[in-house]
Amino acid sequence: MSRQSPNSVFDSLGDLVFTTDERGTLVTWNDAVRGATGLDDGELRKTTLSELFERVDGEALDSAFEAARETGHERVEATLVTAEGTPSPYEVRFDRLDDGPTDAAVVGVGREITARRAREAELTKRESVLREVYEIMADRDQPFTEQVDRLLALGQDVLGTGYGTLSSVAGDEYVFEVVRAPDDSLEAGETIPLSATNCERTVATEQTLVLADIARDAPDLAERTGFTEWGISCYLGAPVYVDEEVYGTFCFYDETPRAEPFSEWEVTLVDLMSRWVSAELERRHTTDRLRRTNDQLERFAAVVSHDLRNPMNVIEGSLELAADTGDEEHFERCRRALDRMDRLVDDLLSLARTGETIDDVAPVALSTVAERAWETTGTDDATLAVEADLTVRADEGRLRQLFENLFRNAVEHGGPRVTVRVVALDDGFAVADDGSGIPPAEREQVFESGFSTATEGTGFGLTIVSEVAEAHGWDVGLAESADGGARFEFTGVDVVEEVEPGEPRT
What is the CA radius of gyration of the chain? Predict the structure, then answer.
């Protein structure tokens, strides 16, 4: 490696290799030095270290050079301006030459570190992203939806996508829960067919779906509405779980395909975010279940301490009077008290069951369930008219429980000859009667546990109705019927089909 030996072994190395004299002027060099600088041998022979590298690094270079002459070796980072005029960072190692050529004091090796610096910069960026992810997840003072919104914003920035969403799946529908979009064309609460989305595949496979270019990577998905009408051209989405079931997806997408595939880091980041969302939703659902359980326990304690104690006192007093007088009426009071206790126990058990999650629903005929509930409710001379038969997806046992309590409520408040009608709505059904109705001032209270205006009522019937509806994901509302009675409306029901209305039944 010298001016006299240009084809030395050092010429095959990619690193810069050179020696300098005691003043830092180049003595020998390899081909890499020539190639990087664009200087010929005559020019290099006159070049010093401060001229080989940018002058802004001169002081550091000089210090490292002198340190190497004293201690034997030293390292320093410096910038070399290439033959194309591009600044290029190098790590330079100096070693003292004790037995080298008489005019060479130090050997230098320079290694280009652009790739290393890029890796370090990328690691620093990733560390910053992970720190921000942690701060978002740890911020318990923010509502869950705001935490998710911040995660979506961060994901959009890292991935360079225009859209980020957390969505849930309800049957065949895809519901946007939290949305980040470049405009107001998509908002939280909107619902679209699941089959139109790429998320349907994420849900079906229960695996993260990674598509840098949908038309190229998944031509079958390019036939869906998401691509043909909305122009979604790249997608990265992960499943979200609650109770070990797929709740929905946490995903990012854009209208422009990516030139490069999503990196392993980007996929891992989205997976990390989706797992936190799953864990947080699971925690929230567990908290809600515990809260409902605690509420039930409080209701049960209130009933045991008050409502059940009253009929027990009646029984005790009536038995004493019966023992003294032998009057049959006292035994009849005992029987009525026992009947009330039996009703209270049945309603308490019903409330306990309505708090359970509905895991298995199936198509059921609304009219059939209503008629069976009517037969077992004790409706005396009341009349049931099923004016629209629907097939809905529901838990048949719970739905029957709902009807039984509605029918009992109608008879208790409307009298033994009340007429109850089951009618169809656009997305559900209604149960209406021609009784005395419920005053507007009391309509917000009727679903509260223990509230009743009937003498023999337990106050739990409509609470059971409300909780059965909630367990199915239905909304329940109360209004006045056309006949002046009460009308309970159930919407958000998964209606499978509608058939011809049946005949009124008595």
Answer: 40
| 50, 82, 117, 308 from 85: Cα distances, Å | 16, 5, 19, 93
Residues 6+ apart with CB under 8 A from 196: 174, 224, 225, 226
CATH number of 359-498, picked from 1.10.3720.10, 3.20.20.140, 3.30.9.10, 3.30.565.10: 3.30.565.10
* Chain-centroid distance, C-alpha 64: 55
Write down the mean pLDDT value for the chain. 83
Question: How far out from the chain centre does Cα 391 lie?
Answer: 31
Task: Express each pLDDT in 359-369 by its tens digit.
Answer: 678 899 999 99
Report the CATH fold assignment for 120-283.
Answer: Beta-Lactamase (3.30.450)
pTM more than 0.85: no
Asked if domains 120-283 and 359-498 share a fold, the reply is: no
SS3 of residue 396 by DSSP: helix
Q: What are the pLDDT digits (tens) for 166-192?
A: 999 988 889 999 999 998 888 898 999
Amino acid found at 113:
I
**What are the DSSP E strand ranges found in 245-330?**
245-254
pLDDT in tens, 303-343: 555 556 556 666 777 777 777 787 777 777 777 777 766 76
**pLDDT exceeds 60 at position 275:** yes
Question: What is the residue extent of each domain of the chain?
Answer: 9-112, 120-283, 359-498
d(CA 127, CA 129): 5
CATH of segment(s) 9-112: 3.30.450.20
* 374-400 confidence digits (pLDDT tens): 887 766 688 999 987 799 999 887 788
* Conformational region of residue 13, where left means phi above 0, alpha means psi within -120 to 50, and beta covers everything else: beta
Give dist(CA 248, CA 60) in Å, integer: 57
